[in-house]
Specification:
By secondary structure, this protein is mostly beta strands. The chain has a domain at 35-128: Sandwich (Immunoglobulin-like), CATH 2.60.40.10. The chain contains 4 helices and 32 strands. It has helices at 2-23, 394-398, 455-460, 467-475, and strands at residues 35-38, 43-47, 57-60, 69-76, 84-88, 102-112, 118-128, 134-142, 145-152, 163-165, 187-196, 204-212, 216-220, 248-253, 256-261, 264-269, 305-310, 315-320, 328-329, 345-352, 358-364, 370-377, 383-390, 401-404, 411-415, 418-423, 428-434, 440-446, 477-482, 491-496, 505-512, 514-522. The strands form 9 sheets. A 5-stranded mixed sheet has the order 2-7-6-4-5, with no helix packed on it. Strands 10-9-8-32 form a 4-stranded antiparallel sheet, with no helix packed on it. The chain is elongated. The N and C termini lie far apart (100 Å).
Length: 523
């Protein structure tokens, strides 16, 4: 029986072999399509906010109809949890890539629809964080979150911005950990400065300070668009990691800056390697007092100089000297007023270069009447309490934002959608702008950062500057306006020319949330 089974098995193999031999040649064999991908460099360098077109050279052996294939550009970022980023699904990559500064492995994949066969080409994409050297930063509140934009100005066509980083923070991350830069909560301030911050980098750098409700950070704009976690956080340039997120940071000149938080004033002095340490709102006797966040601070100085308001004792005080860690009282002036016995609440204060340099303050008394105080404050530190006068204007009493025009000294204020100016010498008020029912003025600003020249410096040596470029940010009145009827990005910035009687706009920018601050760099 066993032998018989062996014979049967052998016979079956012979029959199967014979059947296979008869079947040879009865199939139709077809050669599959093949593809060679060329024209993509091993490394592609892309600047943030720009488009570097990549147009692969595709050589097929058979089917060459573009519609018979799908295409995919996929970036892999191993530093984040969401490491796969689809860049595009077109044959050529001709869009701005949604990537932060850093290095990425990118795979270009072509797939034949009919067979499912795929071909891939791997290359490295280096996204460079360098910004243009001249342009505008905008900070706005979009549904309770901080949005920062940077528009690079075309110096050959002033007022033209070919590169616009409309979500700047999304493109910045720590180069080591890959952690993205975020500002938690609503936005507070921007400030461009030139400081030496040893805990962050060696030597003087241009920095962009950014603050929100719960975050205080800075970006190195000298070496590109660099942010390092945690060494670039504001708390690491304080004496004891406090405050971590000031209400504002203000640079008065290269190497000197103020910061304010909850009634306390801090200073930074690069020459002495001083960080924002012990509060300086005190007398040399040690007596301390809280101050208002509104200060009169002349721009473009190598020293620290300011007039502040002591909210505890209702008086004006002066701080003078980058190495000085206390404040002094102002002297009364015969024919003027006593700045040590004001007995009012400060509503607003700022500095103007007009009148030889002057601090202008709006105050209110116990009866809710409005007063304007004017104090001489020159860049040499000279002070004089000139005037304290009641101003009976309903619009001034109802104002929600204030500014002082840096060139002519007009007091500027807004009531909802209306913008007013007041000539303190002529005692004349006029309507500058009416932005329409439903709109709301969200920001007023006159005078920029220490990176820009003063208007006096321009007038002294006009041949050194491009007036058409620097005039709008140096002496223009910047007005942020929000119209909720236009959605969460219904904000704009109108930059008003205060020199001409008609007050035309230098520029009007749109595409923001509720604008809270603006800066211009001219590096």
């Amino acid at each position: 029986m066993t032998n018989m089974m062996r014979y049967i098995g052998l016979l079956a193999l012979v029959v199967l072999f014979a059947a296979c031999r008869k079947d040879l040649g009865n199939y139709e064999y077809k050669e599959v399509n093949a593809l060679e991908i060329r024209g993509i460099p091993d490394t592609v360098v892309v600047k943030l906010g720009t488009i570097v077109p990549i147009r692969p050279d595709l050589t097929f052996t058979q089917d060459t109809v573009a519609g018979h294939f799908t295409y995919e550009w996929m970036a892999i970022d191993n530093a984040t949890d969401n490491k796969f980023r689809l860049l595009d699904t077109s044959r050529n990559l001709t869009v701005e890539v949604p990537l932060q500064a850093g290095y990425y492995n990118v795979y270009y994949t072509v797939k034949e629809k009919s067979t499912g066969i795929t071909w891939s080409k791997k290359f490295v994409m280096s996204v460079v964080g360098a910004l243009g050297k001249k342009g505008w930063f905008f900070m706005s509140d979009v549904d309770g979150k901080t949005n920062v934009q940077f528009w690079e100005e075309d110096m050959a066509q002033l007022g033209v911005y070919p590169i616009r980083h409309t979500d700047l923070l999304s493109k910045i991350k720590d180069p080591v950990s890959g952690k993205p830069l975020t500002l938690e909560g609503k936005p507070r301030y921007l400030n461009v400065t030139n400081l030496s911050v040893n805990v962050a980098e060696t030597g003087y750098k241009y920095w962009l300070y950014l603050g929100s409700e719960f975050s205080g950070e800075k970006i190195n704009i000298t070496n590109g668009l660099i942010w390092k976690n945690p060494s670039y956080s504001f708390r690491f340039e304080t004496a004891n990691l406090y405050p971590s997120n000031p209400l504002w940071v203000h640079s008065q000149g290269a190497g000197v800056a103020y910061a304010y938080y909850e009634g306390q004033l801090y200073k930074s002095y690069s020459v002495n390697k001083e960080v924002f340490g012990i509060p300086i709102n005190r007398l040399n006797t040690g007596e301390t007092f809280k101050i208002s966040p509104y200060m009169a601070v002349p721009l473009n100085m190598q020293e620290l100089l300011s007039i502040v308001y002591d909210v505890d004792n209702k008086r004006f005080m002066k701080h003078y000297g980058a190495a000085t860690s206390y404040m002094t009282a102002l002297l009364p002036k015969v024919g003027g007023f006593d700045p040590n016995n004001v007995n009012m609440d400060l509503v607003y204060m700022a500095h103007t270069a007009a009148f030889g340099g002057q601090a202008v303050a709006v105050l209110k008394d116990a009866a809710n009447k409005r007063f304007i105080a004017r104090i001489t404050l020159t860049t040499s530190g000279t002070t004089s309490a000139e005037k304290l006068e009641e101003v009976n204007l309903p619009e001034l009493a109802a104002a929600d934002h204030f500014e002082v025009d840096i060139r002519y000294g007009f007091l500027i204020y807004s009531v909802k959608e209306k913008l007013y100016a007041y000539d303190m010498d002529a005692k004349k008020q006029w309507l500058l702008r009416d932005f329409g029912a439903g709109a709301e003025i969200t920001m007023l600003k006159s005078g920029m950062d220490c990176v820009l020249p003063s208007w006096a410096a321009y007038l002294l040596r006009p041949q050194n500057y491009n007036r058409a470029q620097i005039e709008p940010p140096v002496v223009g009145l910047m007005v942020g306006v929000f119209n909720p009827a236009q959605g969460p990005m219904g904000g704009k910035v109108d930059i008003v020319n205060m020199e001409l009687a008609s007050h035309p706009s230098y520029y009007t920018f749109s595409g923001f949330g509720r604008v809270v601050d603006i800066e211009y760099i001219n590096l």
